[in-house]
Amino acid sequence: MKTAEVIIDVPFFDVDAMQVVWHGHYVKYLEVARCELLRSFNYDYPQMSESGYMWPIVDLAVKYVGSARFARKIKIVATLKEWENRLKISYLITDLETGKKLTKASTTQVAIDISTQQMCFESPSVLFEKLGYPKP
């Protein structure tokens, strides 16, 4: 499994009056970790586009378990779970100091051929090449 992690200092502009991160900002944190994961196998968004495919998010699930707070460091771990027909990535956000689980999430992306604007029902060969796996 491909995995990447990032550490984020929770900034003041991401919190509400109670010093708790507003729920919508977690999606931004997932994106930071997702890009780090994609870069780990050289298939971040610029490389996707160059290969002739875009990969929009078609599903997002978030389970809030605890609260991230202002000035705390959080760790976001992104793990690639599926890639044969879609990119499915799972995420775990924890408080860096305590290790307390704060959020679990997953995203699903599908390949769209840029030239035809058609959805691909299986992942293109370039993804398998980037991952170092033969296409089944």
Automatic annotation (TrEMBL):
Keywords: Hydrolase. InterPro entries: 4-hydroxybenzoyl-CoA_TE, HotDog_dom_sf. GO terms for molecular function: fatty acyl-CoA hydrolase activity. It holds the Pfam family 4HBT_2. Signal peptide: none annotated. The keyword tRNA processing does not apply. SUPFAM superfamilies: Thioesterase/thiol ester dehydrase-isomerase. The keyword Electron transport does not apply. Belongs to the 4-hydroxybenzoyl-CoA thioesterase family. This is Acyl-CoA thioester hydrolase. It comes from Rheinheimera pacifica.
